[in-house]
Amino acid sequence: MFSLHAGSGLFLLAVLVGLQIAAEGRGAPPCKPGFSEDTYKVVLPDTVEEGRPLFHVDFLDCGRGAPVHMECNNPSDFRIEADGVVYAARSLQRSPQHALVLLVKAIDGTTQQQWTTQVRMEPPALSSQQVPEASVPPAGNTDLMEISFPSRRNSQLKRMKRDWVIPPINVPENSRGPFPQELVRIRSDHDKSRALRYSVTGPGADQPPTGIFIIDPISGELSVNKPLDREHISNFHLRAHAVDLNGNQVENPIDIVINVIDMNDNRPEFTHQIWNGTVPEGSKPGTFVMTVTSVDKDDPKTANGMLRYKILSQTPESPTSNMFTINNKTGGIITVAAGLDREKVPQYTLIIQATDMEGNPMYGLSNTATAVIRITDVNDNPPEFTAEMFSGEVRENRVNVIVANLTVTDKDQPNTPAWNAVYKITGGDSTGRFSVPTDPTTNEGLVTVVKPIDYETSRTFVLTVEAKNEVPLARGIHYPHLSTATVSIRVMDENESPYFEPNPKLIKLEEGLMPESALTTFTAQDPDRFMRQKITYSKLSDPANWLRIDPNTGRITTIATLDRESPYVKNNLYNATFMGLDDGKPPASGTGTLQIYLLDINDNAPKVFPQEAEICEKPEPNAINITAVDGDLNPNAGPFAFELAHRPFDVRRNWTITRISGDHAQVGLKIGFLESGIYEIPIIITDSGNLPMSNTSYLRVKVCQCDINGDCTDQQHIMAAGLGTGAIIAILLCIIILLILVLLFVVWMKRRDKERQAKQLLIDPEDDVRDNILKYDEEGGGEEDQDYDLSQLQQPDTLEPDAIKPVGIRRLDERPLHPEPQYPMRSAAPHPGDIGDFINEGLKAADNDPTAPPYDSLLVFDYEGSGSTAGSLSSLNSSSSGGDQDYDYLNDWGPRFRKLADMYGGCDD
């Protein structure tokens, strides 16, 4: 069994704890979340101070990682932390005769699962027999606390309840040493029979931060190796072990909790170095301003972390040096004096001090911060006019013009509702012709004209204007006398436009009024009663050009006949516009409208409608419905009388007309059959006017052949029904243009055929000239195109033999009739001295030359074809020409050649 002894140098906080867990054996049961014991036994002294740690309960979470919330059933006396350490919530006075049972509950924050254990707290008198007997500490260390392991009551593998819970060991932070410093000795009662080795595990020992706590493995002395910092780690959870030399566990491990006792080693720190707050001016004492806060890293449950606040200074000290106070515990700043005036002191600066040790100036640590309190504006200063009287002037009939600027002063903060002025006219403007909006930049009142002012009615205005702020004044403050001002406005006269009265002017007249008839006088009035001005009149709009106005008197007369049926008359009204112009400087004009209501007279004869109709040759029924139309109104229109004209005589013989209503009649056939065609039926229609008017209208009736449905089937009906006159004309024009194009194409083709035939005549030598159309419009080229030298006709003696044209040479444009035979070249004839002899010799040579062509070789005009009955013209008076020709065949060529036949045919006459 282990034992624990306390030295006189340390305060005895822990008592012996008996605990035993049946965990021996080869295998341990699976880990199950819950408290390590179902019941803890704790020995408490009779008197416990507030905030003192009492004991620790161990919760096994088996690596779940979920947060667990601890609570007890007596929170007024005991407080339990998340690490399982139970503290005294207040100072307790225990009864030495009774034990106290405390229930501790652990709640899973995620699944809301709960675990419960109980702690039996007994006074030392009741538990004296349960406390293990203390062993004698080793020599030389009699003051060291000794912790003994509970003894094992049996060696069977079962879980045993622990008899004791070890209270935490308190170690002050920032200890100066010397180190290592012994804290406690751990011993087992088995060390009497064999050698043991002791060790501790946990954070601070073999886990980070390592090396803080060490244990002597032989003596079991647990020591701290360096100063502790509570602000870094406030407590340590260690586990003590006892093993033999072979490493076999001889005792169940016991838990040791080491709490780091706080020392005042941290100053208070304000969360902000500069704090900003506001308070309205004129606030009453006790008005909350702001709260300043600071934090201290020391333990807030001790005096080391308990802070107190106070105001060190106030700037400026006006009107007093103590305008504010601060709650020394919460840091709340409130006002304590009246007289906050933003216009005098807009801002205060306070130096705030926070001191720990509950504000003890001797032992506590302090720090300071600055609190800036801005005094916000309230409407405690009304606007005041800079003058009692303002003036302005405006021309009549002007609107949206500013006539005066009203200036005010306000001591409140600019551009705030307490500074912005609102102006109101309280007198002198009964007709609402003025308004006073506020200039948002200057805060001035702008007296503005919103309705036209007539100089002839009002020449001056005296307004009373009041100025207020957008928000009401603060309580107890009244508007001064200077918040009201007087505005004098003078109206200036201007030349105003003449106006017609009434406008529009309506007159009623009968239509048909003749030209140069007087209608009415339409004059304008000049509103400028204090100006002598002349008005002249002119016409602006007269759509039908019916009217004329006298420029001086405004007398309106007609220049044309008024016709109610005119397209310019709408709903019997005719509108004309006239202008009146005065001679002011500058001139002003006004317009007026004259409306003429035209009364109907019977001046339009009725007409038949429709004017065209069609019926079948055998009509069934043989009637056409017609309507009478009249441009006049009732009673000058219907009912109408219908009758057929007496001429032509066949109208009444073939047709009949029957009135079926006041406006309608039927035209029908008297006979059972009427031949197809177009008939015009004269119908006399008479209206019902006071002086009736008659008119003969022609109904154009088309009689056509019809099918079984009674519809016309002839093509003319289709064209008449489907196409209008314009469409038919367009179609005819298209047809004519098409015919012209076809004709031009035919002419072109014929001309092309003629050219082709002419070429064929030149090609084929066997063609008869009488069977072809020959071209005679080509006479050959000029002299430069001839193949002979004309100079030989003038001077034959000088003709060179080599210049004579060979017999076989022809014109380039003549076509050879057949391959030329190879005849011997004929010799040139001798050159006689006379030209006549020269020609005769040439003719003889040509007649005797078998290669000579059948036309004159000296001049070729054109190819005339072959086979002509007139013989060849190639020689003049040739002996081979056949003598006289017979021209009787010219009689067979028609009347055009009869004259030639008479001249050359028949007898010698």
UniProtKB/TrEMBL annotation:
Concerning Pfam families, the annotation shows:
CADH_Y-type_LIR (PF01049), Cadherin (PF00028), Cadherin_pro (PF08758)
One example of the protein's molecular function in GO is: calcium ion binding
Assigned keywords, A-Z: Calcium, Cell adhesion, Cell junction, Cell membrane, Cleavage on pair of basic residues, Glycoprotein, Membrane, Metal-binding, Repeat, Signal, Transmembrane, Transmembrane helix
The Cadherin domain extends over: 163-270, 271-385, 386-500, 501-608, 607-713
Q: A biological process (GO) annotation for this entry?
A: ectoderm development
**Compositional bias (Low complexity):** 866-883
Which residue intervals are annotated with compositional bias (Acidic residues) in the record?
779-788
Q: Which domain of life is it from?
A: Eukaryota
Compartments where found: Cell junction, Adherens junction; Cell junction, Desmosome; Cell membrane, Sarcolemma; Cell membrane
From the UniProt annotation, give the residues forming the signal peptide.
1-27
The way it spans or sits in the membrane comes to:
Single-pass type I membrane protein
Q: What does this protein do?
A: Cadherins are calcium-dependent cell adhesion proteins.
Q: What is this protein called?
A: Cadherin domain-containing protein
Q: Which organism is it from?
A: Takifugu bimaculatus
Q: What is the lineage of its organism?
A: Eukaryota, Metazoa, Chordata, Craniata, Vertebrata
